[in-house]
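Hi,

I'm pasting everything inline rather than attaching a file, because the server keeps stripping attachments. The sequence lines come first, and each chain or strand is labelled.
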Amino acid sequence: MQEVLRDAKSLLRRENYRCTAQREVILELLARHSRRHYTAEEIHQSLRDENPQLGLSTVYRTLVVLEDVGLIRRLDVGDGVSRYEFDADDAAPHCHLICIRCGDVRDIACPVPQEMQSLIEAESFQITDYSMSFFGMCSHCTRRVRDGKIGDPGEDIHLMQ
Amino acid sequence: MQEVLRDAKSLLRRENYRCTAQREVILELLARHSRRHYTAEEIHQSLRDENPQLGLSTVYRTLVVLEDVGLIRRLDVGDGVSRYEFDADDAAPHCHLICIRCGDVRDIACPVPQEMQSLIEAESFQITDYSMSFFGMCSHCTRRVRDGKIGDPGEDIHLMQ
DNA sequence: TTAGATGCAAAGGCTTTGCAATTCT
DNA sequence: AGAATTGCAAAGCCTTTGCATCTAA
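And the predicted assembly:
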């Protein structure tokens, strides 16, 4: 963890960005909760107590920087808000299971199949990034629906803006 | 094509939506250009000449309805604007190749691999939809960069909002 | 020292919504 | 007739930006 942060700092400097306190705390939060998918607002809320001076616009600007150098990745679950996840160098390729009822986003290891890569390379398309998401109901919500605890589709989160 | 539209109309009625002139022209446009990925604004522009009265908010509301009944699908290329594509019943599963330089979005046949589906089902996750996108440079832009016609990365479209 | 980064408030841009008028069924 | 739909304008919401101030290097 400490090493991850040290590497990140040197990467930032190498890319001609400064290592500011704000960038450090934001990156540290994302790295510490590498399975979470934070919105800018959530990051701001999470850090506000310890860093009362942190501005929301700084969070937004920092996310742009961190994504630019490849330390984090942006994810869109379809609700009109960008979410971000830490992206370690050795991060395994994964896709997202997005529950349309509770909004939970879960990673699942799943490499891009060779057959798919071949198809794309055949198009002479140079891949630099990818995103694979599956929408549906997580096991938790499926169980709750089956047990009659929730049944009204109106309870679904509003995924399509 | 005519049959597609007829089926669509009966589907709308079955789902308790009315078949209005606005819904018809919008659906007809999307169905006629099934390989395109229209933004609400583009749909509005495309139809304004023939239907001067069509309002942009009606386009937005119609897109919600058409997506709700499963006639179209929403796509996010990461620029903060929603795009929509016609989704026929017999549409082959496909993913999107999104060029980060020219913004072109291209479909490519590519079914969800069985191994991936198995992994997800193992999580007891009930899939209702999915989205697979690959970002990078299309063959056209790759060629232009190689030929020195474009080289400044600043020309890239701004994909991350 | 000084170019880059931050905070705040204001502006932007896409999308949604209130409401009166219109139109499918 | 009556409820759904439409258009317009206004509002919402997430995100970006201008600018004076601050700060890492």
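The two ends of chain A are 36 Å apart (CA to CA).

If the labels don't parse on your end, tell me and I'll reformat.
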